[in-house]
Structures are given as C-alpha cells and as structure tokens.
Amino acid sequence: MILMRTLKKDYQRYKNEEEHISDIERDLGDEYGWKQIHGDVFRCAQYPSLLAALVSSGWHLFLTMITIVCLAVLYDIWIDHGEVITYTLLCYVALSPVNGYIGGAMFSRMSHRSMQMSDSGTAKKLKKAVAGNRKILHWSNQMLVGILLVPLLIWCVGMLVNTAALYYHTSRTVPFMTLLELAGIEGFIVLPLHIFGTIVGRQLSGNYEYPCRINAIPRPIPTKKWYVQPSIIVILAGLLPFGSIFIEMYFVFTSFWAYKIYYVYGFMLLLCLILAIVTICVNIVCTYFLLNSEDYRWQWTSFMAAASTSGYVYLYSIYYFLFKTKMYGIFQTVFYFSYMGLFCVMLGIMCGSLGYTGASMFVKKIYGNVKID
Known about the structure:
Distance between the termini: 29 Å
Shape: globular
Helix content: over 70%
Structural class: mainly alpha
Number of helices: 14
Largest sheet: none
C-alpha cells in the first residue's frame, strides 16, 4: 500500500512536469528517479541463457511442488514415502513442457530486444559487437542449459554421496540401474517434451513489445548510498521470506532427518502460497528502490535477492545439524550437507524465479503507465 501511494505521487509529479516544462527541459529529462532510466531498464541482461534457464527451471520446480502438495492433501499419498517420490518424478516429467515454454519465450524476448538495439541506427562498431554476440544468444544453448540444469545438480550430489557411501560400505548407495533408469527418463521423455515446449514458447510468446525503446549506449550508473547497492539488497531481501517459513522448517527437517511422517500438507500448501506472495512483494519493493536510484541492473538483482532466502535456510540447517540431530562422522556430515545443499539450491532457484517474475511484471507496469517521449 505504501509503494502504491508512492508510485501515485511519482505519476502525479511526472504529469505536472510534462505540463509545465519547456521543450529543452523535456529533452534533458527528469532530474532523478526511475523514469530517468527508461532507455536502459529493458536492456538485455547479462548471461541471458543462464537467466532464462534458471527462471524456467524455478517455475518447473514450483509447479511440481504445488502439484505434489495438492495430491498429498487430496489423496493421502504421504502415507507411503516411496509413493511421494514416484509422484514427484511423474509430475516433474509431465511438467517438462512448462520449463521449455517459459525458457524459450523469455530467451526469445531477450534476443528480440538485442536485435532491435542493433538495428536502431547505432554506430558500426556497436552493430558488429551485437552481431558477434548473436551466436551466444542462440536458443539451442538456452534449451540445453534448461534441460540439464536440475538433473546435473541432482546427479553431482548423488555421485558425491554415492562415493562416500561406497567408501564407508553403507547402505545409502543408489543402485547403478536406478541411475540408468533416471538417465533414460531424462533422455527419452523429458528431452522431447522440453524441446516441444521451447518451440511453442518461441513461436507464441517470443516477440513481446516493451513500453520503452533501448538507448544505443548504456547510461552510466550514478554513485548510490550503501543501502541501495545490489549486494546489500540481495543479502537483506531474503530475511522476510525466510521469516515466513522459519517455524515450518523445523517440521520439514524433522521429517527428513528424524524419519517422522509429515502429514500437515494442507498447512504446507498455505505456507507455499505465503512464501510466493511475500517473495514477490519484497522483490517489487527492492526493485523500486534499485530503479529509483537510477540503477537498471534489476534482472539479476531481483533473481538473486529472492534466491537469498535459501542462504538463510542453509544457515538454519547448520544450526539444526549441530543442535537438533545426533549425526556425527564424515559420512553422515557429507550425507546431510550434500542433500541440504541440493535442497537449498532448488529452493533458491524456485524463489528466484518467483522474485524475477514479480519484478518483471512490476517494471513493465510502471513504465507502461508513463508517457515516454
């Protein structure tokens, strides 16, 4: 509500200035504020392939999680732990086209903006630089990263734990045939579905027209106060979302590591929705602070600010390991922190996708409501 009132005052101020300033003053632009960077705010982010793959994978994980929680609420699949894993795998495979669609559409829009900038009458050397980068902005690279990102993370952690388990001769090793089956599912089912989703996303949602044109030369970023630096925003933004799930983390960790059955999936569904809403709202406010300081590097900042929630969860997992479990020894330590690291990385990708999406919608909305000459 405070942000909406602030934006309303901004719109009114800009409207009054447009009515009273001269043509020369209008060319010079506003003295400060988020409208000043309208020519750079929709500039293509760095490493667009990775960003698109992270956002699409995050939405893939989020929808998979919501689906599993809903199935647990409706059909009591939580009674059998193996059934939960089976349904999770099935939902992840079935939702693979969503991953491809979001990643393909997002990357296509980024590429489209980069091409527009190269064809807008810039200097020859700028055209050559952009043309040289077109090979990097190739949709197949993004699709490959989107397909392999999550499976490679799981594979690396699984191989690390398997190696430790084989060395200590424990029963925690994953059978080789199971690994082959997962690789077959990835290659023969997930891959075609992901490719299909990517093609559909590129064709249907790849040419979105943004409200503002991109300047040929990037605007210099002014010196800012310490509390609106991107690094500070990233560190502080994860506190509120973590606070919204802090209490429930104890029960989730207990079901993981104390081998107790977790059955309050209705409350977890509500908690997931609260986490999504808080993450999006916090990132919108952080993005407004960043833009108001005339810093247009909001894409990666919004993603990392939301993903920082997982850092606090990992810190809490260290506390839980030291004071709430009776684990000891090298293998149990490797086993615990490897899987908790995987869990937190997945949570970070998921929250980062939600935060980026909310910030992107906010940026398009505010610049679409302001007349830009």
